[in-house]
Amino acid sequence: MTNADDLNGRVFDAPSDNWVYRVLPRPAWPYAQLARWDRPIGWQLLLWPCFWSSALAANAAAAEGSFSLPLFLFHLVLFFIGAVAMRGAGCTYNDLVDHDIDMEVARTRSRPLPSGRVTRFEAKVFLAAQALVGLLVLVQFNGFAIFLGILSLAVVAIYPFAKRFTDWPQFFLGLAFSWGALMGWAGMFGSLSMAAIWLYMAAIAWTIGYDTIYAHQDKEDDALIGVRSTARLFGERTKPWLIGLYGAALVFLLLAFLAAGVGLLAYLGLLVAALMFAWQILVLDIDNPDQCLKLFRFNFWVGTVLFVGLLLALLVA
Predict the structure, then answer these.
(1) Which of 3-12, 41-50, 251-260 has the lowest mean pLDDT?
(2) Contact call for residues 270 and 306 (beta carbons, < 8 A)
(3) Checking phi first, is residue 190 left (phi over 0); if not, alpha (psi -120 to 50) or beta?
(4) Which pLDDT score is estimated for 101?
(5) Contact at 8 Å (CB) between 78 and 140?
(6) How many angstroms separate the CA atoms of 72 and 227, rounded?
(7) Architecture of the structural domain at 27-315
(8) What is the DSSP letter of 100?
(9) pLDDT digit string (tens) for 138-185?
(10) For residues 59 and 263, is the Cβ–Cβ distance under 8 A?
(11) How far apart, in whole angstroms, are the C-alpha atoms of residue 117 and residue 17?
C-alpha cells in the first residue's frame, strides 16, 4: 500500500518534479495538493471552454464591428485567474466530500486529507480563500455574467455526490467544467445566444469523453467500494461511446462556429481536433492506467488547437 510517507509528502498521481515541490515551502505542499497546483491539467481543461467562448464571442463582435481587444485580453486574464482559483476550490470541496472514499482508493489515499496532513477545518478555510478569489474575479464582469456565474455553483455543489447516485457523474462534471463556454460569450455581450449554447453542449460531450478515459484508472477500486462512473458503465464499449461523444462534440462545435460566423481558420482547427479525437480512440487501451492518464492529459492540446484556430480566425478577419 502506498502512503504519504512513502511518497515523501507528495501525492501518488502527481509528477514529483513539479514546481510546487521545487518552489513552495514544504508546509504549503498539502494546500497546493488540495488545489491540484501540482496537476495543472485540471485548470487547463477548465480554462479552455472559457477561452473558446471568449474567442468565439470576439469573432462575432468583430463581424459586427464592436470588437474590443483590451476587453478581450482582460477577459482572458480574468478567466485564467478564475480557472486556477475555482478549480482549486472545487477540488478542495471534492476532497472534503470524498474524504472517506479517497481513503479506500489506491490513487487517492495519499492526498492531504486522507493522509492526515491537513485537517478538515484547515481545508475548509483554504476552500473559502480560493472561493473569495473566484468571487473577486467574477465581479469584474457585467451583471448578466455575474448572475450566470453564480448559477454554476448549484452544479458544482452537486457534482461530488453524483458518483453515489448515477452511472453518469461525468455528465455532471461536464455541466460544471463547461460553464465557461457560456461565460465568455456572456462577458462580451451581456447575454447568451445559440452559438454559446452549442459551444456549451460541445464542451459537455468533450468532458464526458476525456473524463471517461481518466476514470478507467480507478475502475477496479471504484467497483470494490461502489463508486459509479461512465468508465464502469461503458466498460468494453468505451470506444464506441467515445466515437459518439467526441463526434457529438465536433458537431456542436461546428454549429457554434456557424452560428457565430467565424472565419475559415477556425474550421481548420476543428479538423485538426477531429483527427486528435480519432487518434485517442484508436490507440486507447482501457486496461492501461498510465496510457489513460496520458490520453486524458492529451486533451490539453485538443483545447489548444481549437482556441488557436478561433484566435487565428479573429486575427485574419
Answers:
(1) 3-12
(2) yes
(3) left
(4) 78
(5) yes
(6) 41
(7) Orthogonal Bundle (1.10)
(8) H
(9) 999 999 999 999 999 999 989 888 988 999 999 999 999 999 999 999
(10) yes
(11) 20
